[in-house]
Design goal:
The chain is α/β, with parallel strands linked by helices and 469 residues long. The protein has two domains: 231 residues, Rossmann fold; 178 residues, Rossmann fold, CATH 3.40.50.10490. Helix content is 46%, strand content 12%. A five-stranded mixed sheet has the order 1-12-11-7-10, sandwiched between helices. It has a five-stranded parallel sheet with strand order 3-2-4-5-6, with helices on both faces. Helix 8 links the parallel strand 5 and strand 6.
Length: 469
């Protein structure tokens, strides 16, 4: 392990820290070593066959160069950059910018911003959309439409609204100059539109699923537009991929994290996985992780078609904010949770706490310290309280918050999730539960070919007797 890599401290997951009733013995973890070697071999075979493309994204230098060039064109001509996407087409964009950009990027004057202002309206809420379009000047705005399939209803609805706005404001002939499409390289409605109308586009690799796409054009293009060092992001991801290339459970942080969570779920009935960053910059990484875990491992059927209804429920929290809203439950509520705390060893900027009111005990101990010292102390204190109460927790330590370590984070949890699919024996790369809702939406909105589904829904609604207060 490189001394400046992410470090997983799993001390407080063990029974020696939180007791035999709630912790794991080293022997219990070690019992999964043989299984991990088999899963590792299966994943490697699928990777070698070209099925699992996310592993190889850090080494795709040609794609990175294309992304940088496309991003520079946007940076040269636009003041605002809007990402139209949802789920995996938005969460990584938001998480990367929150982690690596100025906390108030959009409020900085142009000469101090690292790139155009960034907006990600990742919900087809009519009021949110209307408010955003009201404050943007279309003439100085570029819109990045992201959907691999080219058929995501929420994104396509936003695209139609934006297209109409641009046609009315900059003129039909210039609409394409304000759009960049990120979609499948060969198929789908957006690919057809981009080809027919000459709209600039970037490909989503066919073997990379949406929630695993943060390290391809889906996540990298917006990051490059706003000034993130995507080469460092990819370098960090590549370093973690190499670090996790071993099938040794005890030296592979991704496999160790997923194995522990699997065992807590199956053997300790802890089916809630809380991720709690102690840095505002890391808060949206927990949101990205929430989708990755929930969609990948929350499955009704296993790979043999048996009903299993498996998967932990991911919950995000923020330290110290949620010490004042959730930690009471975490420390004294049901023993059904395992915690991953995110911590940084070095703050990029510090805020001193000036001394004043030395006669007041409530203030005097703070004077002369820093906010970073306070937040780090609160992280360690929460860790202590959880451990004392028998609540298993681990700490993922960032030497500092930068592009390289955020890239490591993404790759670590993508590999952990793929490994988790092997442990649960489910397909970690599909989302059949999501598809049912999509089909129902298509039917309700009148999409051609979904007439039977519409009839099914109407029959179901007719049988329902509403009970309201």
């Amino acid at each position: 392990m490189h001394p400046m890599s992410l470090t997983l401290d799993f001390t407080n997951l063990l029974s020696s820290a939180v007791g035999a009733d709630h912790g794991l013995s080293e022997a219990a973890i070690d019992n999964q070593a043989g299984r991990t070697r088999r899963i590792h071999a299966e994943l490697q075979a699928r990777r070698d066959s070209g099925e699992l493309g996310f592993y190889d994204l850090p080494g795709d230098t040609r794609a990175a160069a294309e992304i940088r060039a496309a991003a520079q064109r946007v940076r040269d001509h636009f003041e605002n950059f809007v990402v139209l996407g949802i789920g995996g087409s938005a969460l990584g964009v938001i998480a990367t910018q929150t982690a690596l950009g100025h906390a108030f990027h959009n409020l900085l004057p142009a000469d101090r911003r690292s790139g155009p202002r960034l907006f990600v309206p990742d919900n087809p809420d009519p009021e949110l959309t209307a408010d955003l379009l009201e404050v943007l000047d279309p003439k100085t705005t570029c819109f990045n439409v992201i959907t691999k399939s080219g058929s995501t209803s929420e994104t396509m609805a936003h695209y139609l609204a934006v297209r109409d706005l641009l046609a009315r404001t900059v003129g039909p002939s210039k609409v394409k100059d304000h759009l960049v499409i990120t979609t499948d390289p060969a198929k789908g409605a957006l690919r057809k539109i981009a080809a027919a109308e000459g709209i600039p586009s970037l490909p989503v690799p066919p073997n990379v699923g949406g929630r695993f796409s943060v390290l391809c054009a889906v996540g990298l293009f917006p990051a490059a537009v706003v000034g993130v060092d995507i080469d460092a992001l990819l370098a960090g991801a590549g370093a973690m991929e190499r670090r996790c290339a071993s099938d040794d459970l005890w030296s592979n942080p991704a496999y160790l994290h997923s194995t522990a969570h699997f065992l807590f779920d199956r053997e300790r009935r802890k089916n809630i996985a809380v991720m709690m960053p102690y840095a505002s910059a890391l808060r949206d990484l927990a949101d990205w992780y929430r989708q990755l875990l929930a969609e990948s491992l929350g499955k009704r059927l296993d790979v043999e078609g048996r009903e299993v209804h498996c998967g932990q429920t991911p919950v995000k929290a923020l330290g110290a904010t949620d010490q004042h809203s959730q930690v009471q439950l975490y420390v004294e509520g049901p023993h059904d949770k395992v915690f991953t705390l995110l911590a940084t060893e070095r703050w990029r900027r510090e805020t001193p706490i000036p001394p004043a009111h030395p006669e007041e005990d409530a203030l005097s101990f703070l004077g002369g310290r820093t906010l970073g010292e306070l937040l780090s102390a609160e992280q360690r204190a929460t860790e202590y309280a959880l451990t004392k109460a028998g609540r298993p927790n681990c700490r993922l330590i960032f030497p500092q918050i930068d592009a390289e370590h955020v890239g490591e984070f993404y790759m670590l949890f993508e590999i952990a999730t793929a490994h988790g699919g092997g442990l649960y024996r489910v397909n970690a790369f599909d989302q059949p539960g999501v598809e049912e809702g999509k089909d129902a939406t298509y039917a309700l909105m009148g999409k051609r070919g979904f007439e039977a589904k519409r009839a099914e829904l109407e029959a179901a609604f007719a049988k329902t007797k509403p009970r309201r207060v």
